[in-house]
Specification:
A hairpin with a 4-residue loop joins strand 15 (309-313) and strand 16. This protein is of the alpha+beta class and 354 residues long. The protein is 30% helix and 35% strand. The radius of gyration is 32 Å and the shape is elongated. The chain folds into four domains: 12-95, no CATH class; 98-203, Immunoglobulin-like (Sandwich); 234-267, no CATH class; 273-353, no CATH class.
Length: 354
């Protein structure tokens, strides 16, 4: 037998005990984080500034009704109390049967705002949801803005773009999103935590001011040019044009002299190989180690953008040099998860050519 309809909520704060006693979606004790989670109310409730004024006026009118015995004042007090009851019932309906999920961008970096799409879905069958505020439950290393949904019809999903900023690298675990409302009268702020566990990999900070300075000119002189045709910048030779050749490679001056179309062929450029050596020793100052991680990530991002084949070597792991964006993110992932290794020492990074 469902007792929920027979037990109406007389005051907003009694919703806590009614929801705990007769909630249909009450999770088992093992899944609520122990005794603390069992004792935690399913709703948070606070009085707004307008609500404090309202209660103060209600209190004064109540005293006047008791002192004077005026039936009209008793009627006014009853009406004011009825509004509180209505506020509790409607706000409870607003927070029920909602589901929240997140849609992450492809890559997230430390100290760089990331736009995350929060999706809230109403699983109600009839009445719409009004005036709800969404904000990530506070988590270490994560700072977020809130967002507001004015109306959500039954069975519909609303998507909002929210800015997330992560202040540390690595895997950040998120617990859920707090949904709160002041609807309908703005007297009380009632909230509910919608559990939505999630994990996000945060790459180190990318800042070109932190990158190591690399002598690219010296590296180019030391590099050896591979003989043969390729996609380089130096001219290798001319040959007759075929239908498969791009028109932009036609050498018009030579074609005019030879009375036939000729195309330019280019030499294959030398491979510019660099390995980042990261000596990830334990440091007495964690901030020093984190700065070195950011320096390594910024250097890798810069060099790959300049066409270098980049690899990385730590005390326990090595990624061989390779070019292109496909090489960037495996290295950034390694740096996102790297931890100090070995005994206390002097951590550092350096660049090795070739």
């Amino acid at each position: 037998m469902n007792l929920r309809p027979t037990l109406s909520v007389p005051l907003p704060w009694l919703t806590i005990f009614i929801g705990r006693a007769f909630g249909k979606d009450k999770p088992p004790a093992a899944k609520r984080g122990g005794i603390r989670a069992m004792l935690k109310p399913p709703r948070s409730l606070s009085v707004t500034r307008e609500g404090k004024w309202y209660i103060g006026i209600l209190f004064l009118i109540g005293i006047a009704a008791i002192n004077t015995g005026n039936n009209l004042l008793y009627l006014v007090v009853s009406m004011l109390l009825a509004l509180i009851v209505i506020s509790g019932v409607i706000s409870e309906h607003t927070l029920r049967r909602l589901a929240v999920s997140r849609a992450w961008p492809a890559h997230v970096f430390k100290d760089a705002p990331a736009t995350v799409r929060l999706e809230i879905t109403s699983r109600k069958r009839r009445l719409p949801t009004f005036s709800v505020h969404l904000k990530e439950i506070p988590t270490d290393g994560c700072e977020t803005d809130g967002t507001f949904v004015l109306r959500l019809d039954p069975g519909k999903t609303s998507t909002r773009a929210v800015r997330y900023t992560f202040t540390r690298r690595g895997i950040i675990k998120l617990n859920g999103v707090k949904v709160s409302t002041r609807f309908p009268f703005g007297l009380f702020l009632k909230g509910k935590e919608e559990r939505s566990p999630d994990e996000v990999l945060v790459y180190p900070k990318i800042d070109q001011k932190l990158r190591l300075r690399v002598d690219e000119a010296a590296h180019a002189q030391d590099g050896s040019r591979v003989s043969g045709k390729g996609a380089g910048s130096e001219l290798y030779g001319l040959r007759e044009y075929t239908m498969q050749d791009p028109a932009r490679f036609i050498f018009w001056k030579a074609a005019a002299k030879a009375s036939k179309l000729l195309v330019r062929e280019f030499e294959q450029d030398s491979e510019k190989r660099i390995t980042i050596i990261f000596e990830n020793f334990q440091s007495s100052d964690p901030a020093v180690f984190e700065r070195l991680v950011d320096e390594a990530a910024s250097t890798v991002d810069y060099l790959i953008g300049r066409g270098f084949s980049v690899g990385i070597k730590t005390l326990s792991t090595e990624i061989k040099p390779a070019p292109g964006a496909a090489q960037l993110y495996p290295i950034l992932r390694l740096l996102a998860l790297i931890e100090p290794a070995g005994p206390n020492g002097a951590p550092g990074i350096r660049v090795m050519h070739g």
